UniProtKB/TrEMBL annotation:
Protein name: Uncharacterized protein
PROSITE patterns linked to this entry: HELICASE_ATP_BIND_1, HELICASE_CTER
UniProt similarity note: Belongs to the SNF2/RAD54 helicase family.
Gene3D superfamilies per record: P-loop containing nucleotide triphosphate hydrolases, Tandem AAA-ATPase domain
Assigned GO CC terms: chloroplast; nucleus
GO MF terms held by the record: ATP binding; helicase activity; hydrolase activity
Domain Helicase C-terminal: 482-619
Subcellular location, principal: nucleus
Keywords, comma-separated and alphabetical: ATP-binding, Coiled coil, Helicase, Hydrolase, Nucleotide-binding, Nucleus
Record InterPro entries: Helicase_ATP-bd, Helicase_C-like, P-loop_NTPase, SNF2-like_sf, SNF2/RAD54-like_C, SNF2_N
Amino acid sequence: MSRTQRDFLAFHNNVKRLREQICKGIRQWHKNAEKLRDKEKLDRLAALKANDFDRYREYVKSAKNERLNELISKTDLYLSMLANKMSRASKTLAGGASDQSAGALLELDHQILPSNAEDENESESTKNTNEDQEEAKTLQHVVKEVVFEQPSIMGGPELKLKPYQIQGVQWLVSLYNNNLSGILADEMGLGKTIQVIGLLTYIIESKGDNGPFMIIAPLSTITNWAIEFSRWAPGLEVIVYKGNKDVRRNLFRSKMKSGGFQVLIVQYEMAMKSEDMRNLKTFTWSYIIVDEGHRLKNKDSKLFIVLSKEYTSKRKLILTGTPLQNNITELWNLLNFLLPHVFDTDQDFKTWFSKPFAIANDDEEEQEASLEEQMVLINRLHQVLRPFMLRRVKTDKDLQLSMPENREVIIKCSLSGLQSIMYRQLQHAVLRSRDEKGNVTAKAYNNIIVRLRQVCNHPYLLDEQWDLGEENIVRVCGKFDVLDRILPKLKAAGHRVLIYSQMVRLLEILETYVKEKDYVYNKLIGATASDDRATLIEEFNKEDSEIFIFLLSTRAGGQGVNLQTADTVIIFDSDWNPMMDEQAKARINRIGQKKQVRRASSLVVNAIALTGCHVRTND
């Protein structure tokens, strides 16, 4: 081999080695860069989960992530706009009073807009930015007051608020001091009712504000409110506004017109009736308190419109264990009801806080980016809500609750022979229900879904001409067959049971069954009178009560009722809205419960009831 050939080969070998080294270096650089990006992302998420948004903001800046920077900038703008609106609204509310009395201000832990924000009109932008930052410094409850103990006019030696309930009262007092309306959204069973009583007794005793205060509640909770006031604040002048038209008219003339009361408890329907509304809106209420306030999630509902336009109050308070049931618009509607001058349009709110949640993309990287954006928005949404809403759950370690174990099971049942035949007949029937173009109509589908659910619950729901003997009731229904095997064991073990259903007719069949079995029971449905409700609940909760089963309709007995002397809940047929079932289950899982709580839902395999469960889970 000549020298020229050797030099040629050596040169190209060197080039090859150099190229390999360069490629290896590039691959290593990309690998290190990817590791660094992963580490930065983990650090960002860790900062976000720790609610350290200042640190998260710096990470996003250094990462030069345009999407996240834009998202933070937009939500900063929204929070800044909110601060300005709050400032104007509070000054309007206070009639131009001093800063302290104006209140209703918010305060964030970091500057709302970055100081180096750039815009085409830099000078104007900088001016607006500085003004917004100045407003941002007051984006929090300004007037702060520590509540150390419950008022002397509340409770007694054996009725003491728990520490977290004292903290709840303090937060409510802070709302009061800052001229703010708000949402007390503690999980069901944490004692929202007595925290409100704590607020009212505190401002009566410490602020000299004797009201009047109006509590608007569903019929199912009216009795409980009256009982709790009689226990915790017997010295207050409380009127329960109920009875027929003549009784209510006399009540207004004899007790209310002169102003000789402090608290009025009224149900939704009464507050919306024309004559009652005409009387009740003559007062300027110190507080309007709406129990089970998620009923206001639809701003076009009559309740929302009437309470917003017809009644005058200095402050409003919503109580709900489920502030967000379906979508973020419902939450905005609650805020709009409380602070209409601040949350006056939902367009920006929906645009900035809903879009990332609507992304449906199969791309894994896109999904990860969307997940981080969702976490950012949840964090910013918490900042928006923090001054207006207090939400705590039983699992919060800070509450230091000693709650019994919670056991929940889903019992899958098979269709009986009769149910299977009826189910198939209905399936075939819907295929025959076609319009002129040969399509199955939406109405036909809706009707058939209702009837299929009835078949799953009990075939007698479709035809009342059946023998309602105990043996037949059980034999023709898979759910009843399982129930018939469960109840004797629960009774033998000393358990007490709540059985919920959405269908009144089904509760009648259940009533026939428990009578045949000689079980001691009570039944509460929507048609049950208010006074009878109180008696039924008192009888069930009475010490040494022999009542084994309480039959309840999900809507009438699933909200605001305290039945913690029971330890087992059976949801016989689930609601399409899972929050309704959670409300029902929470009737026994409350503070003071000492027994292990058992919660069961019965479902039919391969049927519409099981499909309903899947729909609820995915909502």
